[in-house]
Structure formats: structure tokens, C-alpha cells
Amino acid sequence: MRAIIHVDMDAFYASVEQRDNSSLKDKPVIVGGHAQRGVVLAASYEVRPFGVRSAMPMARALKLAPHAIVVPPRFSAYAEASEQVFAIFERYTPLVEPLSLDEAFLDVSASVGLFGAPADIARRIRAETTAELDLPASAGIAGVKFVAKIASDLAKPNGQREVRVEDTVAFLAALPLSRLWGVGPKTQEELNRAGLNTIGDVATCDVSWLETSLGSRGRHLWELARGEDPREVVPDRLAKSVGAEDTFEEDLTSLDLLRSHVHSQALRVGRRLRRAGIQGRVVQLKLKFSDFRVMTRRTTLHSPTDDGQAVYRAALELLQRAHSGRPVRLTGVSVESFDALAAQQLGLFSAQPRSTKLNATLDRIADRFGSKAVTTADLAPSRAEATGTSRSDGPDR
Which terminus of the chain, N or C, has fewer Cβ atoms within 10 Å? Predict the structure, then answer.
């Protein structure tokens, strides 16, 4: 029987700021940028009772909570904390699927013999993130990913909730339709008109009617409502692609700024590839413009790589060809078409490639002193942090 844990760090950016600045402890903190044009990147739990939420325009947030303390984002600090958090996850299972910097699915089915029941493992992980990193986390435990995610949401802040397999249908039944993955406002309105208001209503609905009304999505929603979610937890080494992307607080048009973000993303992808022991042949660049249209461009390398600089060079060529001066709100770099990392056959007078030695050295430095201990000139904090971004490092599917 599968045991899935969804761990989600609580108000991650704000919690890091409160940890690193004692004067912010227990204060209403908003992590965000420009008071008029920016958005809320994170809101501490002290400010949430006033209605402030992530992704809310800063202007509205400050009207709701004029007494809030606004701090600018420090993405290098969040990336550093994220690596430490994921290192704790990996103590308990190699099956860790990152969704973003601050949340992941863990399959602990094979870990119970070593570490105890799934709920005990979740408690240990949360205790260690608190004791070692001074960062709170919430967790959901279930037999499937969908239910584990809902359980962790309902456990916030700083709690955990377990949904036993036999209780899954009853747990879901009373929840609103908005909790179903894939149900947006339009779909919810259509279901409401048909008299369906809860997940339980969908679970007991005639599936053929759902398929007629919603197409293939109808059966998918019906299965989720019944707690059926066969998706596996897919770590980087088994994912179809490994990627990193940044959503900008303000749209960017400067090729120099876009280049810096793409460089950072490529280096992050390279490090994740090496940690997973895989190399990829195909590099993809993703651009989302201010009108939310998405463009992707791909290129195939001559040989597979896990070198972030090689990924960057390929992505930069794609960026230079795709850049037209249109405002960009997101960039992403991903690598796919994987080969397992195998020992290279060296000739009699061959040496290990310089990039391999350099990357191994940089990885050791990062493991000991943090991911930002050594970086390239264009990724200096003043550049990256002046443009305000939110990051997602989950594998692309």
C-alpha cells in the first residue's frame, strides 16, 4: 500500500525573513516589491487575518493591512533554505518530487521499516525543519498525491493531517468543488447548475453524464472525487524533464536581465541533474509574455550534459533568437531526453573534462557553504534581487 506525504513549508519566504531578522518575529510581514505595481510574494500568518494573501496586488494588501511590515525578496536566501529543506526530505526517501522551492511529494512506502509509520515520518521531518532550520512546515499523509495535498492544506499552519485509505471517500465528500484539481470557476459554475456542490456530489454522480458534459475531464474529476489518483511520485532521476523557472514581479524587456535569469535557471538545472545522476540532450526555453501567451523553443545538444554552463549556452541561443522586446513575465529552462550518468571511457592520455572537475568542486562548496557561496558575476544578488521574482523548481511534465 502506498504512503504519500506532501510537505509544504508555511509562508516560506516570510518565515525565512522572520527567522533571519529577529525584529520581524511574530509581526505581520509581507514579502513583496513596489507598493503600486508589485504583488505579494508571501504573507506571514500574522498578516493573513486581515485578508492579505500571496499573489494579491501590493496596493490592495497595504490597504487591508497598512500596519504590515513590507520587506523586499531575497531569493538567494530562499534558494539556500530550500536546499536545506530538501536535504532533510532525502534522509527519509529517495522518492522526492519537488513542486516548487518549498513543497514536495515524498513516497515513504518503503521507508516505514526504517523510520516507522508514515505519520511518524512526517512528524520527524517537521521536527527537523524546525529544530535545524527554524522553519515551520505542514504535512498531509494519504495513499494518493491528490488527497495528501489537500490534507496538508487543511493542516496549515504548522500541523499535519493523515487520511487513511479507508477514510478517503468520506474525507473528500464534504469538501467544496474548488478543491478538485482541474475545477476552475467556469467548470464549477457548470457543475453547480447541475446541482453538484461538493466533491461527494461528483463522486456519486453518473460518470457518463460527466463525460458527456465535460469530455475526458469528466471521468478524471469523477475518479479524483473517489480518491483515485494513480500518479506516482517522480523524483528528478525518473522525471521526463528537470526544470527551473522564475515568475517576475514586474514584466521584463531587457535582454540583459532576462539573460541573468536564464543563466541562474540553467545552473540550478545543472546542479539538480548532477544530484540525480542523469544527463540530458534536449534543452528547452520557456517564455511567458505579459499577455500570458507562452512560447517554447528547444534545441538538441551533440551529447548529453549535466553542466549548467552548457545548458546556459544552449538556452541563451534560444533566448537571443526568441527575444523581440515584448514584455516577459516568466522564463524557464528545462532539460530532457535523459541518459543515466555512466563512467566515461578515457583514452590513455585523456583527462577528466575540466567542466566535470569544476562542477564537482562547486557542488562540494555548495554542499558545505550554501548554493550561493560561489556564483557568476551576472548573478550577483543586487542584480537578481532587484527585479523581484517567484521561483519554481519542480520537474516539468
Answer: N
DSSP symbol at 176? B
pLDDT band at 123 (very low <50, low <70, confident <90, very high): very high
Architecture of domain 236-392: 2-Layer Sandwich (3.30)
- Per the document, the length of the chain is 397
Domain boundaries, the chain: 1-144, 168-225, 236-392
Q: Dihedral angle at the C-alpha atoms of 230, 235, 239, 242, nearest 10 degrees?
A: 140
Is 103 tagged catalytic? yes
The catalytically annotated residue of 17, 103, 162, 249 is: 103
* Per-residue confidence (pLDDT) for residue 196, from 0 to 100: 93
Give the SS3 label for residue 340: strand
Q: Check residue 383 and give its pLDDT.
A: 40
Nearest to 191 by CA among 178, 181, 173: 178
Q: Which CATH class is domain 168-225?
A: mainly alpha
If 0-12 CB within 10 Å is exposed, 13-18 middle and 19+ buried, where does residue 173 land?
Answer: middle
pLDDT score of 376: 53
CATH, domain 1-144, list 3.30.465.10, 3.40.630.10, 3.30.70.270, 3.10.20.740: 3.30.70.270
- Mean pLDDT over 245-264 rounds to 85
Per-residue burial over 15-50, b if 16 or more Cβ lie within 10 Å, else e, is: bbbbbeeeebeebbbbbbbeeeebbbbbbbbbbbee
Give the helix/strand (H/E) hosting 112.
helix 112-115
User: What is the number of other CB atoms lying within 10 angstroms of the CB of residue 392?
Assistant: 18
Bridge partners of 334, per DSSP, are 243, 284
Q: From residue 10, give the alpha-carbon distance in Å to each of 107, 224, 227, 380.
A: 21, 26, 25, 27
Domains 1-144 and 236-392 share a fold: no
